[in-house]
Design brief:
The protein has 249 residues and is α+β, with helices and mostly antiparallel strands. It has one domain (33-246): Super Roll (Bactericidal permeability-increasing protein, domain 1). It has helices at residues 2-16, 41-58, 197-209, 211-240, 243-246, and strands spanning 71-77, 83-93, 99-106, 111-118, 122-134, 137-165, 168-189. Strands 1, 2, 3, 4, 5, 6 and 7 form a seven-stranded antiparallel sheet that branches. The model is unreliable at 5-22 (pLDDT under 50). It binds 2-acetamido-2-deoxy-beta-D-glucopyranose (3 copies). Residues 121, 123, 146-148, 186-188 line the site of one 2-acetamido-2-deoxy-beta-D-glucopyranose.
């Protein structure tokens, strides 16, 4: 009895000291592991990621990946020079329903290239906060936004550096070059003009009619913001396990 208690305490101690004492953790059994020297590495990663989609829907705690069905983004800032615009508690999904047009990983160069697309409409909802000039409107408001995106596609180049942690080699991902292309959107917003629902409705119509030019205006900030989300997700995965476990030789 005493021994068990002691063992339990030790265990708690070890787990709570994770950054200092590296526990032996295991990859989830459903993850198909690819070998970094496999000539078919890219094909292997592609099929491994495609197989992972149903698990990505719910999130994969062992890899510190949160649910993508939908993905909760606590704050998404897409401000431009003309307008401060950010979303809070924004959900977007089904983000796990991607197709992979291309993927290439090189662990000598420490670089991953991704080309993903979303044939399914992506549905976003949350609070918006806007202050500044958008099209012809001067806006200073916040409210609810409901937006559907079609033909979402992204290209990313993510660079890493190999580092040694606890005598094991890890890939430390440091920067991302991301381009997000959105085919079109359709949105609805509340409270753009607090006391004027009619003007709010008409403004929303104008936004939807000008979706293409708005997409152009926000392409840079959207790419940067989504890039950071992807980079952080990749960082969490690759900081959880050494390279020799994630992509053994
Ligand atoms: C986001 O949602 C959480 C939980 O529902 C809530 O506590 C928080 O205040 C919300 N944040 C904003 C900025 O709406
Ligand atoms: C988004 O699409 C859903 C159905 O997928 C629909 O119910 C909703 O009204 C659409 N929202 C907007 C703002 O177009
Ligand atoms: C937009 O949202 C308002 C408020 O929730 C709602 O009354 C209206 O029906 C919505 N319009 C569309 C086109 O979805």
């Amino acid at each position: 009895m005493k021994m068990n208690l002691l063992a339990a305490c030790l265990c708690v101690l070890v787990i709570s000291c994770l950054p200092i004492i590296e526990c032996k953790r295991e990859l989830p059994p459903f993850l198909k592991v690819c070998h970094r020297n496999d000539p078919q590495l890219n094909q292997c990663i592609k099929s491994s990621l495609l197989d992972l989609r149903p698990h990505l829907a719910n999130g994969i705690p062992a890899l510190k990946v949160s649910s993508l069905h939908p993905l909760l983004i606590t704050r998404l800032d897409i401000s431009t020079n003309d307008v401060k615009l950010y979303y809070t508690n924004f959900t977007l999904g089904p983000m796990e329903q991607f197709e992979i047009n291309d993927i290439s990983a090189d662990f000598d160069k420490c670089q991953i290239l991704l080309d993903f697309s979303y044939p399914k409409e992506q549905v976003g909802q949350g609070q918006y906060h806007i202050n500044g000039q958008l099209l012809l409107f001067h806006l200073d408001s916040e409210g609810w936004v409901d937006v559907n995106f079609t033909d979402v596609r992204f290209n990313a180049k993510i660079n890493c550096k190999k580092i040694i942690k606890n005598e094991q080699e890890y890939a430390d991902f440091q920067d991302i070059d991301m381009k997000v292309k959105i085919g079109d959107f359709h949105l609805n917003m509340t409270d753009l003009f607090k006391d004027d629902p009619e003007l709010t409705r008409n403004t929303v119509v104008v936004f939807n009619e000008n979706s293409k030019s708005l997409l152009e205006e926000f392409e840079g900030p959207v790419s940067a913001a989504i890039g950071q989300i992807v980079l952080q997700a990749v960082q969490r995965v690759f900081s959880s396990f050494p390279l020799d476990i994630l992509v053994p030789p």
